Amino acid sequence: MSGFGPAFLTSTSTSFFDLVSSLRPEALPATPGTPQSLPPEGTTVLAFRTADGVLMAGDRRATAGHHIASRRIEKVHRADATSVIGIAGTAGLALELIRLFQVELEHYEKIEGTPLSLEGRANRLAAMLRSNLGLALQGLAVVPLFAGLGARSARDPSPVGRIFSFDVTGGKYEEVDHHAIGSGAGPARSALKRLWHEGLDTETGVRIALEALTDAADDDAATGGPDIVRGIAPLIRAVGPDGEQRVPEDEVLAAASALADVQMRGEATP
Amino acid sequence: MSTPFYVSPEQLMKDRAEFARKGIARGRPVLVLSCADGILLLAENPSSSLHKIAEVYDRIGFAAVGKYNEFEGLRQAGVRYADLRGYSYDRGDVSARGLANAYAQTLAGVFTTEQKPFEVDLIVAELGAAPEDDRLFRISFDGSVSHERGHVALGAGADAIAKRLADVDVTALGLSEALRRGREAMGLAADTAIEAAVLDRATDFHRTFRRLEGDA
């Protein structure tokens, strides 16, 4: 034990990813070679703008081939105080990438004394994906969805809800009002197109998210809808002026049963 | 060829310590005290952006006096150390003891081998579940570490500040009362610019460090 290594004292980088890459590359998410059996995959995450920010929701199922690997996986996570990240793709890598991204943002904030801008966070995420390209080409793709509150430009500093999607090569695309990723993205996007409107409050937002996820679960075997019998609800996180908050699971479950009641009676959803 | 003057090791160390002590004694004071609501970090600091107190990890705070560029470098090294450790193992495995150790080794190494010792004194504070579980480590420019209880002050007039708080049971105070007593002990006028932050015992988030804006 002899104090800090030279890299700790002389580094000028604010990136935790760079630090780990140089000091402890084996701690980064990586898999040498292609695994024999299919690793678990996570699917369907969606996000849209609301009146005071953004809302992101993800189902709780992970699949490995035709097998359900997990009913309770969490695909939507808090990135920092004003943003959330959701992931579809190889679950093991995806969860590690989220953990790395969370530390990356926190690390920058502590070193610089101020949080990274929303656009800056999205760019960092894109760079981290790009460095994972080798894995993506092996079939272990990870595709995130990133959303949060941030200024649109330096001239207009008032924060608005913004959504970014990515591809496996690290391409970053800003979405306008709503977006969905994963194998159930098709039905979920159609539902969002139909239901989304300007000025949604969180309660209505939760209902719309549930409806879109239910639609996705209807048509996609890899997406799990709300499971009222077991009490497993999709994971929903909202970012507003008060910061990032998880919508409590019992509230989501109550909204899901209300939605199921309406659908059972064959009525049109409000 | 000229023969270098012989300087005894005792004299060499004494000169270096005196040099470092002089630099540190010019620094405006910093006070860290553990109260019922958390650990309060207080610094007299005219700048609102060049911080003397900072967050290192979830439950670990950092305070320093002396040369800004030197303690800023040490602070960043601490953040790198803590984040890397927390990422490789678990967030709960980052402790103030390990961090204080690394600081002590680094400062001791620089003190004995480099041209010029660091002119800094540091405090590493770790928040516990209750005030008696709090850990306050004071690390001096020469790498000596001491484990303090209740409160610890650095910089100009540190001894006087500690004396003024000697018969106050700081661990029983609430946050606002601790802030008032702390300011009083530091002998600050009402309009003196201070920097204040707290490691909050009550927060639900894993990151407990919070700057007290508009420092009352």
Automatic annotation (TrEMBL), chain A:
Lineage: Bacteria, Bacillati, Actinomycetota, Actinomycetes, Micrococcales
UniProt-listed PANTHER family: ATP-DEPENDENT PROTEASE SUBUNIT HSLV, METALLOPROTEASE TLDD
Main EC class the enzyme belongs to: hydrolase
Domain of life assignment: Bacteria
Cellular component annotations (GO), alphabetically ordered: cytoplasm; proteasome core complex
Coiled-coil zones: none
Keyword Thylakoid included in the entry's annotation: no
Pfam family, one: Proteasome
UniProt cross-references to SUPFAM superfamilies, sorted A to Z: N-terminal nucleophile aminohydrolases (Ntn hydrolases)
A GO term for molecular function: threonine-type endopeptidase activity
Protein name: Proteasome subunit beta
Keywords: Autocatalytic cleavage, Cytoplasm, Hydrolase, Protease, Proteasome, Threonine protease, Zymogen
Catalytic activity from the UniProt record: Cleavage of peptide bonds with very broad specificity
Presence of keyword Protease: yes
EC number: 3.4.25.1
GO terms classed as biological process: proteasomal protein catabolic process
Gene3D superfamilies: Glutamine Phosphoribosylpyrophosphate, subunit 1, domain 1
UniProtKB/TrEMBL annotation, chain B:
Similarity-based family: Belongs to the peptidase T1A family.
Organism: Brevibacterium jeotgali
Transmembrane annotation, as ranges: none
GO biological process entries: proteolysis involved in protein catabolic process
A GO CC annotation given for this chain: proteasome core complex, alpha-subunit complex
Keyword Cytoplasm assigned: yes
Protein name: Proteasome alpha subunit
Taxonomic lineage: Bacteria, Bacillati, Actinomycetota, Actinomycetes, Micrococcales
Catalytic class of the enzyme: hydrolase
Entry's EC annotation: 3.4.25.1
Keywords from the named record: Cytoplasm, Hydrolase, Proteasome
GO molecular function list: threonine-type endopeptidase activity
